[in-house]
């Protein structure tokens, strides 16, 4: 990070939108918001946006919460309480509350910021970066803020470069060769290509940089517009594209990569399939996301746990894991694991066989269970002899089974089993 980027980062506040449910994760988000979902063995999804901010030198952060926020707020209090006011650092948790009128809930992403303008103004940041709290990626935001300042933009929009026909589910930017956004189209059937790259398109990451004063003025105008949905992607950004200067910032210019990461990594783990895949991918010999890079740590709440333990060494009853990640506090007792990711405190008992299993914290898998390609929610007790992943019809009756054959298993589903 050069001195100019560092100076700009110190003048910037990060505002993280962390109120979304993530309904396509189904039962996994029944009791927690999507940003509070577990990821990678010990982290939560929101840790990536927060770690990016801290590692970028941005130490003033607000987190707007809404849906089922208790788990998220508890995590922030436990894991992110190291900010010191005397060093001009702060992390504010901003639940939807009666600040402007009698309606508590944030009506849209822009309204979430509008309701907290006074708090933002109290810190007097020159720039503000709006972040989504529910994506997995590593990015140096200071480089994006510098691009914003150097280009003289009214808004800078973070964009990922995706194959053109995969961009139909995103908001897509049509840009000129100087990154100026000419058009912003939501979920287009025929996405506009990038200049010079006809097979690629620029899709919005839900990251925006503004000058704070300019954004406050826009938000006040938007709040008084009865026809607005008060949303950045739907209202604020398209309006600036029409009347001001909106600039696209391709993710490849500021993504953070270790020597092991060959291409920019960004994932929306908003479906059961995507969530399972991104977690299991971490067990690869050379994963696309390097969590072992100490130069860009992913900060989180770390529970005090003993090391993982593997016990028993008899034929057919061997504590054994291959191509797997096993977190602290786990006991792998006479079980075999293949391409599995075990979160904190998981216990597996003798003669159980697991393949492609993502087990959340404190799952217990009892004897003789045989489970393949599954996501198991926190604290679930898998009964003795349960078989998952061999009979698709039976799996679909008992659990939530995706079209790709991944089973989501929760305790209420287990409680209904007739075994």
Structure, described:
Helix content is 23%, strand content 28%. A hairpin with a 2-residue loop joins strand 15 and strand 16 (317-318). The strands form 6 sheets. Strands 1, 4, 5, 6, 8, 9, 10, 11 and 12 form a 9-stranded mixed sheet that branches. Strands 17, 18, 20, 21, 23, 25, 27, 28 and 29 form a 9-stranded mixed sheet that branches. The protein has a 5-stranded parallel sheet with strand order 14-19-22-24-26, with no helix packed on it. It is an alpha/beta fold and 419 residues long.
- The amount of helix comes to 10-25%
Radius of gyration over alpha carbons?
23 Å
> CATH first level of the largest domain: which class?
Alpha Beta
The secondary-structure class comes to: alpha/beta
Q: Segments where pLDDT lies below 50 for 5+ residues?
A: none
Binding site for alpha-D-glucose 1-phosphate: 106, 171, 186-187, 204
Pfam families: Hexapep_GlmU, NTP_transferase
Subunit structure: Homotetramer.
Pathway: Glycan biosynthesis; glycogen biosynthesis
How are the SSEs ordered, and which strands pair?
Blueprint: H1 3-10, E1 12-17, E2 38-39, E3 43-44, H2 46-55, E4 60-65, H3 70-79, E5 90-95, H4 109-114, H5 117-123, E6 127-132, E7 136-137, H6 141-151, E8 155-163, E9 171-175, E10 181-186, E11 200-211, H7 212-223, H8 232-243, E12 246-250, E13 266-267, H9 272-281, E14 309-311, E15 313-314, E16 317-318, E17 320-322, E18 325-326, E19 331-333, E20 336-338, E21 341-342, E22 347-348, E23 353-359, E24 364-365, E25 370-376, E26 381-382, E27 387-388, H10 392-398, E28 400-401, E29 407-409, H11 411-415
Parallel strand pairs: 1-4, 1-6, 4-5, 8-12, 14-19, 17-20, 18-21, 19-22, 20-23, 21-23, 22-24, 23-25, 24-26, 25-27, 25-29
Antiparallel strand pairs: 2-3, 6-11, 7-13, 8-11, 9-10, 9-11, 15-16, 28-29
Helix pairs in contact: 1-6
């Amino acid at each position: 990070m050069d001195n100019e980027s560092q100076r700009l980062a110190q003048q910037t506040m990060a505002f993280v939108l962390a109120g979304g449910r993530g309904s396509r994760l189904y039962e996994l988000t029944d009791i927690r918001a999507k940003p509070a979902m577990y990821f990678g063995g010990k982290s939560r999804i929101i840790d990536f946006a927060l770690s990016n901010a801290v590692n970028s030198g941005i130490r003033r952060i607000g987190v707007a919460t809404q849906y089922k926020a208790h788990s998220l707020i508890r995590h922030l209090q436990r894991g992110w309480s190291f900010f010191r006011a005397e060093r001009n650092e702060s992390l504010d948790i901003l639940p939807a509350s009666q600040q402007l009128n009698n309606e508590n809930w944030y009506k849209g992403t822009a309204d979430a910021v509008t309701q907290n303008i006074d708090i933002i103004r109290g810190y007097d940041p020159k720039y503000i970066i709006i972040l989504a709290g529910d994506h997995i990626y590593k990015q140096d935001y200071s480089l994006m803020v510098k691009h914003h300042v150097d280009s003289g933009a009214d808004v800078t929009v973070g964009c990922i470069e995706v194959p053109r026909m995969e961009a139909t589910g995103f908001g897509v930017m049509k840009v000129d060769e100087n990154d100026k956004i000419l058009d912003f189209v939501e979920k287009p059937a025929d996405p506009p290509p990038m200049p010079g790259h006809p097979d690629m398109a620029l899709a919005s990451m839900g990251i925006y940089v503004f000058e704070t004063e300019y954004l406050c003025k826009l938000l006040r105008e938007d709040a008084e517009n009865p026809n607005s949905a008060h949303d950045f992607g739907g209202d604020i950004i398209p309006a600036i594209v029409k009347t001001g200067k909106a600039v696209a910032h391709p993710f490849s210019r500021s993504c953070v990569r270790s020597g092991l990461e060959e291409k920019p990594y960004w994932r929306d783990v908003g479906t059961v399939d995507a969530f399972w895949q991104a977690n299991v991918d971490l067990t690869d010999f050379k994963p696309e996301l390097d969590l072992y890079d100490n130069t860009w740590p992913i900060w989180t709440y770390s529970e005090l746990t003993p090391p993982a333990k593997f016990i028993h060494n008899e034929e057919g009853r061997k504590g054994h894991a291959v191509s797997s990640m096993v977190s602290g506090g786990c006991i792998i007792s006479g079980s075999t694991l293949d391409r599995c990711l075990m979160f904190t405190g998981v216990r597996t008992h003798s003669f159980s066989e697991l393949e492609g299993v993502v087990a959340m914290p404190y799952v217990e898998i009892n004897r003789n269970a045989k489970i393949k390609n599954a996501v198991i929610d926190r604290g679930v007790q898998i009964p003795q002899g349960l078989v998952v992943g061999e009979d698709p019809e039976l799996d679909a009756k008992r659990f939530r089974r995706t079209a790709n054959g991944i089973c989501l298993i929760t305790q209420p589903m287990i409680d209904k089993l007739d075994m």
